[in-house]
């Protein structure tokens, strides 16, 4: 589906047309949600599958105390992220950090000072000062 351009949008001429467009949009939205849910289920299933034997062999060398039967694709990915992070890959580090819930909080500072002045004396004083400039 292409990008929606404002000039290509056509307003509805009747309430029936608006209702029909809304119905079609709802149906398409439902289909899209169903596709996303199915994709997530497939990804979860693949992540929980047993990792390939060559990955397991490397894992056993690094972590001999862990049972190789427990090695899933999910664990293999985490292992690779850890190794990459230890090698200096900042993106791998950030992914791991964020995944375990240690992502720093981002603060948004509002510099827009909207002042609602309702006191008539204050308004008049401000207007007088502005006139004096």
Summarize the structure.
The protein has helices spanning 15-47, 53-62, 73-86, 90-99, 120-132. The protein has 133 residues and is mostly helical.
Mean pLDDT: 83
Give the low-confidence spans. Answer: none
The coarse overall form would be flat
Compute the separation of the termini in Å.
57 Å
Order of helices and strands: HHHHH
As a whole number of angstroms, the C-alpha radius of gyration is 29 Å
Fraction in helix: 55-70%
**Structural class determined from secondary elements:** mainly alpha
DSSP summary: helix tally: 5
The number of E-state strands comes to 0
Task: Please outline the major beta sheet.
Answer: none
* Beta-strand content estimate: under 5%
How would you explain this protein's 3D organization?
The protein contains five helices and no strands. α3 crosses α4 (90-99). 60% of the residues lie in helices and 0% in strands. With 133 residues, it is an all-alpha fold. The mean pLDDT is 83. It has helices at 15-47, 53-62, 73-86, 90-99, 120-132. The chain is flat, with a radius of gyration of 29 Å.
């Amino acid at each position: 589906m292409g990008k929606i351009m404002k000039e290509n949008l056509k307003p509805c001429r009747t309430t029936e047309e608006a209702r029909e467009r809304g119905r079609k949009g709802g149906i398409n939205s439902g289909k899209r949600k169903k596709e996303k849910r199915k994709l997530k289920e497939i990804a979860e299933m693949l992540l929980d599958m047993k990792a390939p034997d060559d990955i397991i062999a490397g894992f056993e060398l690094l972590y001999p105390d862990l049972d190789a039967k427990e090695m899933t694709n999910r664990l293999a990915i985490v292992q690779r992220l850890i190794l990459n992070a230890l090698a200096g890959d900042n993106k791998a580090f950030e992914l791991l950090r964020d995944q375990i819930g240690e992502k720093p909080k981002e603060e948004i500072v509002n510099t827009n000072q909207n002042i609602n002045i309702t006191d008539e004396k204050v308004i008049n004083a401000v207007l007088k000062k502005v006139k004096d400039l």
